[in-house]
Amino acid sequence: PDNEVLSNEPHETMPIAAFGQKQRPSRFFMTPPRLHYTPPLQSPIMDNDPLLGQSPWRSKISGSDTETLGGFPVEFLIQVTRLSKILMIKK
């Protein structure tokens, strides 16, 4: 069974202003693209995933020469989608 554990300690929080002051590196210092990456022609993840399988971006994800979509790595987007579905089921 899934049990909740309550703490007697006060919650640790961060002020909202801390997020606005966060210094982010410029795009110039981002990780360079990996040139050795070749995306598979058909990924079993895409075929078995109903959410990604129906996506209008599917052709761009599976057949593109780049490994990013909207500025994000494709593998990262797939992992975020999986995590999101797991969390929705967990609710």
Automatic annotation (TrEMBL):
Ranges where the LIN-9 C-terminal domain occurs: 1-91
Domain of life, per lineage: Eukaryota
Gene Ontology terms describing biological process: DNA-templated transcription
InterPro entries: LIN-9/ALY1 (IPR010561), LIN9_C (IPR045831)
Pfam families: LIN9_C (PF19438)
Region (Disordered): 1-23, 39-64
Coiled-coil positions: none
Entry's Gene Ontology cellular component terms: transcription repressor complex
Stated name of the protein: Protein lin-9 homolog
